[in-house]
Amino acid sequence: MLFQVQIAIRIPQGVDKTEVEKLSAAEIEQVKQLQRDGRWLHIWRVAGKWANTSILDLQGPEELHQIISSLPLFPYMEVDVIPLSRHPAAL
Amino acid sequence: MLFQVQIAIRIPQGVDKTEVEKLSAAEIEQVKQLQRDGRWLHIWRVAGKWANTSILDLQGPEELHQIISSLPLFPYMEVDVIPLSRHPAAL
Amino acid sequence: MLFQVQIAIRIPQGVDKTEVEKLSAAEIEQVKQLQRDGRWLHIWRVAGKWANTSILDLQGPEELHQIISSLPLFPYMEVDVIPLSRHPAAL
Amino acid sequence: MLFQVQIAIRIPQGVDKTEVEKLSAAEIEQVKQLQRDGRWLHIWRVAGKWANTSILDLQGPEELHQIISSLPLFPYMEVDVIPLSRHPAAL
Amino acid sequence: MLFQVQIAIRIPQGVDKTEVEKLSAAEIEQVKQLQRDGRWLHIWRVAGKWANTSILDLQGPEELHQIISSLPLFPYMEVDVIPLSRHPAAL
Amino acid sequence: MLFQVQIAIRIPQGVDKTEVEKLSAAEIEQVKQLQRDGRWLHIWRVAGKWANTSILDLQGPEELHQIISSLPLFPYMEVDVIPLSRHPAAL
Amino acid sequence: MLFQVQIAIRIPQGVDKTEVEKLSAAEIEQVKQLQRDGRWLHIWRVAGKWANTSILDLQGPEELHQIISSLPLFPYMEVDVIPLSRHPAAL
Amino acid sequence: MLFQVQIAIRIPQGVDKTEVEKLSAAEIEQVKQLQRDGRWLHIWRVAGKWANTSILDLQGPEELHQIISSLPLFPYMEVDVIPLSRHPAAL
Amino acid sequence: MLFQVQIAIRIPQGVDKTEVEKLSAAEIEQVKQLQRDGRWLHIWRVAGKWANTSILDLQGPEELHQIISSLPLFPYMEVDVIPLSRHPAAL
Amino acid sequence: MLFQVQIAIRIPQGVDKTEVEKLSAAEIEQVKQLQRDGRWLHIWRVAGKWANTSILDLQGPEELHQIISSLPLFPYMEVDVIPLSRHPAAL
Questions:
Q1: Answer CATH for I2-46+60-84 from 3.30.70.1060, 3.90.550.10, 3.20.20.20, 3.40.50.450
Q2: How confident is the model at residue E42, as a pLDDT?
Q3: First CA to last CA across chain H, in angstroms?
Q4: Which CATH code fits G2-84?
Q5: pLDDT tier at C24, thresholds 50, 70, 90
Q6: Could you tell me the maximum CA-CA distance found in chain F, to the nearest angstrom?
Q7: Residue A12: what pLDDT?
Q8: By the CB < 8 Å criterion, does F47 face chain D?
Q9: CB under 8 A, 24+ apart: contacts of B14-21
């Protein structure tokens, strides 16, 4: 089933920049692997912000929480989750 | 280029129900045609609401405005537009 | 899987009171049946408001949208949906 | 009587991680004990966030404040309290 | 136990003025009776608005909902309920 | 004349805990003295939060500002002030 | 004592235009008289909106409520009241 | 001097469509004339909404209010005004 | 021309108190001088907050920005600017 | 195609002032170069705030994100992006 996830990253003052870069790199790899697994369908950058719009295809809220809370930048994220269903206008 | 469009429908008291159904049916046809044209990539129902999340692939804001403002239910829509760019984690 | 659903009812001026009472009565019956089916686990009144907090146990967002959008008072509802997962402190 | 409590945790930059883990572990034990006592009826994780939805069955606002303000992570919590009453649609 | 109740009245266009005056008069009588019963401790007008701040001393959320939802102007109210407990600085 | 004052306390990371306790203790004494003086009529704890609802009976905004800004925890307060007048339903 | 009052006017659909003009004209006269009485010190138009910023010099919240709630357009007003005190930088 | 003006149009249910079209047409003519006069520098459509972003070059808030409040659709507008000054990065 | 300026001061944790007092004292002198120059017409304390309401009479947004951004506490200010025009009810 | 970009700068406590000045100077040079390139059409200071309103003429969201996220003060920015299209009233 599909979930839209809106993520914004806010790094507080005092976090080491090298650490942030390391977490970012690890996050990119993790999200790529989840795409290869067919669980993270889409990820787009919100233009002009450190934020993204994603569509995940998962077995439910348990898997969603496990995936999002395991992301390396999770402690610095604002997350909105919107469960999606089929739209009558979808082909 | 990609635009995320969040649409919520609010029908005010006093609008004729048959009219709303006619507009809805026309809107579904219009969105289907735009999907066939490769301009409206995705449309999902926000579960539990009269609202949807859509991704459009267009030539720019002009085409975006022309498409959204031509939708039959446009007078009753709240619309949010988010320009999207490629995310470094996208495969 | 579990979804928390927060519903507030706002009846606009001009809706017939007898109609509202009829819709309310039908809604109560529908929600009771969904409880008997084991799909609507809890419904509580938010004290002091025409609003409720509910917990539903469903197969996913499709079933959620089908159930909520079929409620007789759906046209007058503001709905928030929160997917729930297991908490490590739950017994 | 029932209270719905929405809790979100926000740990500011500079708090020691080991300390947070110790507080979290103590909090889990405390919430489990309150469940065994029949005072904390439900706790669910809000999927994708460090947040939870809880239902407590207490003698009133005094007991509510005593319990919530004694939680080890209370200094880092945003708390919303919603008093609940019986809904006419509840079985 | 104590509940703080913030009430704002919004009369939509189209409601008959004589009806509003009748409802207001009935509401005043009802609130006075609840004060005499020792259940509605304080009611103050929020200066400059059709709104009030009230303190009620009740047996719990059930009684609170029963009282507030029985007020003649309830259909036109925005209501916020805040459960109160004893403050350590209170004499 | 009466003023409703809603106060929430937010202690930023880095403030010494012993200092906060000292300020809190001093604040409690100050508020108690103002109650004995007949100027601070009521103070209630907002259940579940480090926040309070208070009613002060003062000579005007000058005295209000002097009292609130002299509270030991004032640098960490969010304050809302609502001037109150007599309600026609008050006994 | 001084109160800052921010007023915005919102006329709902269906109110007779001639009636609004009559109420507006009466309101202007009433506000002028209050200025002559030394009770309404300043009134400015918020540029670009049907809204105003006013400073009143009154005996307290009772007089404030009596004055604002007697304004002919009061049923269509959104009102914010801010009690003012002397600023240490004022000459 | 420059003012940024953000305008959104909301037509309430019950306003005659022909009337709206007439007001829209008159508004377009009025805005064009103000552009020819060098007072309305830019007007852009906010893509996907009945809203616009404008930059006006005026003698001050008096002229701003006179121009905006004379627009035929003013009764249905939400207006935000932002005074602009020269930016150090402007060529 | 007139501008209403609403200023709230928020000093983050870690700023030296003596420095804040020095900046405050300098700011008071600067605002007093601007009053003597006839450019800062009014300044009032928002009762109960570290905030003020001011009315400035300036040549336009350039002078406004120059004055506000030169205030010693500017780095710690939240500022709202509202251009004012003559109200038809003003004497 | 045109994008309106609203940028506010918020420097957290603890960032070195000389560093901020260096980043500001570099940002001004970068924005000037983008204006010479015909990509950054307008930049105005929001009077009274460390914020600006800008209009960019770009090939799409990719270029927008590349430009905004390369600005030296990007880590301290709040950014809002509004895609613009031609307005029927534009000359």
A1: 3.30.70.1060
A2: 98
A3: 17
A4: 3.30.70.1060
A5: very high
A6: 49
A7: 96
A8: yes
A9: B14/C14, B14/H13, B14/H14, B15/B76, B15/H13, B20/B73
Which architecture, in CATH terms, is H2-76? 2-Layer Sandwich (3.30)
Residue J61: half-sphere exposure toward Cβ, Cα within 13 Å = 27
Residue ranges for chain J with pLDDT beneath 50? none
The identity of residue J87, as a single letter, is H
* Averaged confidence pLDDT in chain A: 98
Q: Which CATH class is domain F2-13+20-84?
A: alpha beta
Q: CB count, 10 Å around CB of C71?
A: 18
- Chain I neighbors of H86, CB-CB under 8 A: 62
pLDDT > 90 fraction of chain H, expressed in percent and rounded: 100
Nearest by CB to B87, which of A36, A52, A83? Answer: A52
Label residue G60 by pLDDT band (50, 70, 90). very high
| Per-residue CA distances from J50 to I27, I66, I70, J8 (Å) | 18, 12, 12, 6
| Span J2-9+18-76 CATH architecture | 2-Layer Sandwich (3.30)
pLDDT digits (tens, 9 = 90+) for E28-72: 999 999 999 999 999 999 999 999 999 999 999 999 999 999 999
Assess H84–G contact: CB distance below 8 Å, yes or no: no
Residue H85 to residues C64, E36, G41, G43, J39, Cα–Cα distance (Å)? 51, 61, 31, 26, 21
pLDDT of residue C19: 97
- pLDDT given at position D91: 94
- SS3 of chain A: the string is CEEEEEEEECCCCCCCHHHHHHHHHHHHHHHHHHHHCCCEEEEEEECCCCEEEEEEECCCHHHHHHHHHCCCCHHHEEEEEEEEEECCCCC
φ, ψ of residue C15 in degrees (nearest 5)? -80, 135
pLDDT at C54: 98
CA–chain centroid gap for D90, Å, is: 24
What CATH number was assigned to the domain covering residues C2-10+19-84?
Answer: 3.30.70.1060
Interface size H-I, in CB pairs within 8 Å, comes to 40
**D47 contacts A61? CB cut-off 8 A:** yes
A49 in contact with B at a CB cutoff of 8 Å? Answer: no
Q: What integer pLDDT is reported at residue D63 of this predicted model? A: 98
Instruction: With beta carbons less than 8 A apart as the criterion, state whether I43 and I35 touch.
Output: yes
CATH of D2-9+18-84, picked from 3.90.230.10, 3.40.50.2000, 3.40.190.10, 3.30.70.1060, is: 3.30.70.1060
* Placement of tokens 């804001």 in the chain: B61
Check residue J43 and give its pLDDT. Answer: 98
Q: Is H48 helix (H, G, I), strand (E, B) or coil?
A: coil
Contact of G76 with chain H, judged by CB distance below 8 Å, is answered with: no
**Is G48 in contact with H68 (Cβ distance < 8 A)?**
yes
Facing residues of C78 across strands?
Answer: C8
Task: Tell me the C-alpha distance between C68 and C6, whole Å.
Answer: 11
User: What's the average model confidence in pLDDT over D68-86?
Assistant: 98
J and G make contact (3+ CB pairs below 8 Å): no
Token pair for C70: 């079929």
Q: Which CATH superfamily is domain B2-79 in?
A: Dimeric alpha+beta barrel (3.30.70.1060)
**pLDDT tens digits for F8-66?**
999 999 999 999 999 999 999 999 999 999 999 999 999 999 999 999 999 999 999 99
**Which residue among G43, G82, G89 sits closest to I31, beta carbon to beta carbon?**
G89
Closest alpha carbon within chain D to F52: D65
Summarize the confidence of residues I40-65 as an average pLDDT: 98
What tens digit of pLDDT does each residue of F65-84 get?
999 999 999 999 999 999 99
Share of chain G above pLDDT 90, in %: 100
Other chains touching F, judged by 3 or more CB pairs under 8 Å:
D, E, G, I
Residue E40's pLDDT is what? Answer: 98
Q: Which residues of I touch F1 (CB under 8 A)?
A: none
